[in-house]
């Protein structure tokens, strides 16, 4: 990271590439017991949230990520009422989930209260549903929370985590996935941020598909979408189902959604499920 010449940069040295945003000032910096949090003001992308040197979100482009991690799963499950978000401390996922009037409870479990405090101060628009009576915000380790949760107690689990290093490492492992499978109801769905298809197909996506299947999920699909500020700008969410065909979704309900989105719609949902040639072997359920 450097503020030289007023550019904030994140270099992915393994891939020989870097992403930079023009910034005017550092608004916040904090070392929590879990990670290093920074917030910057950028010139064209609104505010920038950084954890341990990695972009988490910008004001301008976080909508593609938050919408594609939430609405496809919620329009695939036949009747999602109980949603669990693991991570998601910036609260943008919670806001999208609570747009669904059928959702009766949404529990967000982030290990680090510092992320939510920073979001409330610098990204209030992401936190606008935090006081919804259906919302519960907890600060705890998601691995432990899922281990302790009751069988069949959740309809949709969304894992909105940092990369699979540090506190988030366990969220990509099979023990965690087995617990998620156990706490999901019969039609239950898991959706997990699964990094970049072009950078991480073999290192993360392939492993994640294997781990999800190993944990007992019968179908695994990966959806693709742009996130301009993430490594390569090309991102993915992987959805795993306990039963049924998760390539099918409630298309008529998605077309008639009673809320506004900036990216998600029924056509985008369908298109995101298409498997590119270089991923076909891996995305065998699509
Ligand atoms: N979408 C971002 C990305 O892919 O770069 C990540 C968003 S950020 C909200 C991810 C959150 O995961 C952080 O707030 C972090 O505190 C949380 N997290 C990491 N490990 C966790 C764990 N074991 N349990 C719960 N939350 C965790």
Automatic annotation (TrEMBL):
<feature type="binding site">
    <location>
        <begin position="141"/>
        <end position="142"/>
    </location>
    <ligand>
        <name>S-methyl-5'-thioadenosine</name>
    </ligand>
</feature>
<comment type="function">
    <text>Catalyzes the irreversible transfer of a propylamine group from the amino donor S-adenosylmethioninamine (decarboxy-AdoMet) to putrescine (1,4-diaminobutane) to yield spermidine.</text>
</comment>
<feature type="binding site">
    <location>
        <position position="90"/>
    </location>
    <ligand>
        <name>spermidine</name>
    </ligand>
</feature>
<dbReference type="Pfam" id="PF01564">
    <property type="entry name" value="Spermine_synth"/>
</dbReference>
<comment type="subunit">
    <text>Homodimer or homotetramer.</text>
</comment>
<dbReference type="InterPro" id="IPR030373">
    <property type="entry name" value="PABS_CS"/>
</dbReference>
<feature type="binding site">
    <location>
        <position position="35"/>
    </location>
    <ligand>
        <name>S-methyl-5'-thioadenosine</name>
    </ligand>
</feature>
<dbReference type="InterPro" id="IPR030374">
    <property type="entry name" value="PABS"/>
</dbReference>
<feature type="binding site">
    <location>
        <begin position="160"/>
        <end position="163"/>
    </location>
    <ligand>
        <name>spermidine</name>
    </ligand>
</feature>
<dbReference type="GO" id="GO:0008295">
    <property type="term" value="P:spermidine biosynthetic process"/>
</dbReference>
<comment type="similarity">
    <text>Belongs to the spermidine/spermine synthase family.</text>
</comment>
<feature type="binding site">
    <location>
        <position position="66"/>
    </location>
    <ligand>
        <name>spermidine</name>
    </ligand>
</feature>
<keyword id="KW-0745">Spermidine biosynthesis</keyword>
<protein>
    <recommendedName>
        <fullName>Polyamine aminopropyltransferase</fullName>
        <ecNumber>2.5.1.16</ecNumber>
    </recommendedName>
</protein>
<keyword id="KW-0620">Polyamine biosynthesis</keyword>
<feature type="active site" description="Proton acceptor">
    <location>
        <position position="160"/>
    </location>
</feature>
<dbReference type="InterPro" id="IPR029063">
    <property type="entry name" value="SAM-dependent_MTases_sf"/>
</dbReference>
<dbReference type="GO" id="GO:0005829">
    <property type="term" value="C:cytosol"/>
</dbReference>
<dbReference type="InterPro" id="IPR035246">
    <property type="entry name" value="Spermidine_synt_N"/>
</dbReference>
<comment type="pathway">
    <text>Amine and polyamine biosynthesis; spermidine biosynthesis; spermidine from putrescine: step 1/1.</text>
</comment>
<dbReference type="GO" id="GO:0004766">
    <property type="term" value="F:spermidine synthase activity"/>
</dbReference>
<feature type="binding site">
    <location>
        <position position="167"/>
    </location>
    <ligand>
        <name>S-methyl-5'-thioadenosine</name>
    </ligand>
</feature>
<dbReference type="Pfam" id="PF17284">
    <property type="entry name" value="Spermine_synt_N"/>
</dbReference>
<feature type="domain" description="PABS">
    <location>
        <begin position="5"/>
        <end position="242"/>
    </location>
</feature>
<dbReference type="InterPro" id="IPR001045">
    <property type="entry name" value="Spermi_synthase"/>
</dbReference>
<dbReference type="InterPro" id="IPR037163">
    <property type="entry name" value="Spermidine_synt_N_sf"/>
</dbReference>
<feature type="binding site">
    <location>
        <position position="110"/>
    </location>
    <ligand>
        <name>S-methyl-5'-thioadenosine</name>
    </ligand>
</feature>
<keyword id="KW-0808">Transferase</keyword>
């Amino acid at each position: 990271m450097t503020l030289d010449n007023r550019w904030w940069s994140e270099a992915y040295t393994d891939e020989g590439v870097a992403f930079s945003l023009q910034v005017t000032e550092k608004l916040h910096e904090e070392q929590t017991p879990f990670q290093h949090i920074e917030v910057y003001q950028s010139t064209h992308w609104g505010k920038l949230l950084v954890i341990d040197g990695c972009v988490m979100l910008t004001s301008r482009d976080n909508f593609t990520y938050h919408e594609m991690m939430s609405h496809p799963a919620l329009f695939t499950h036949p009747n999602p009422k109980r949603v669990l978000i693991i991570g998601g401390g910036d609260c943008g996922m919670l806001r999208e989930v609570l747009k669904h009037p059928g959702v009766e409870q949404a529990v967000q479990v982030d290990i680090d209260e510092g992320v939510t405090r920073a979001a409330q101060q610098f990204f209030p628009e992401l936190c606008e549903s935090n006081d919804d009576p259906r919302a519960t915000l907890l600060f705890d380790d998601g691995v432990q929370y899922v281990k302790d949760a009751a069988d069949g107690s959740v309809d949709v689990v969304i894992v909105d985590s940092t990369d699979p290093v540090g506190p988030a490492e366990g969220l990509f492992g099979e023990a965690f996935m087995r617990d998620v499978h156990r706490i999901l109801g019969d039609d239950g769905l898991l959706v997990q941020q699964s990094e970049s298809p072009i950078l991480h197909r073999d290192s993360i996506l392939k492993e994640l598909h294997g781990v999800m299947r190993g944990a007992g999920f019968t179908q695994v699909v990966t959806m693709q979408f742009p996130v301009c500020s993430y490594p390569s700008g090309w991102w993915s969410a992987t959805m795993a189902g306990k039963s049924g065909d998760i390539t099918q979704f409630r298309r008529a309900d998605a077309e008639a959604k009673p809320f506004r989105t900036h990216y998600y719609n029924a056509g985008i949902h369908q298109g995101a499920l298409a498997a590119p040639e270089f991923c076909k072997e891996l995305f065998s359920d699509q």
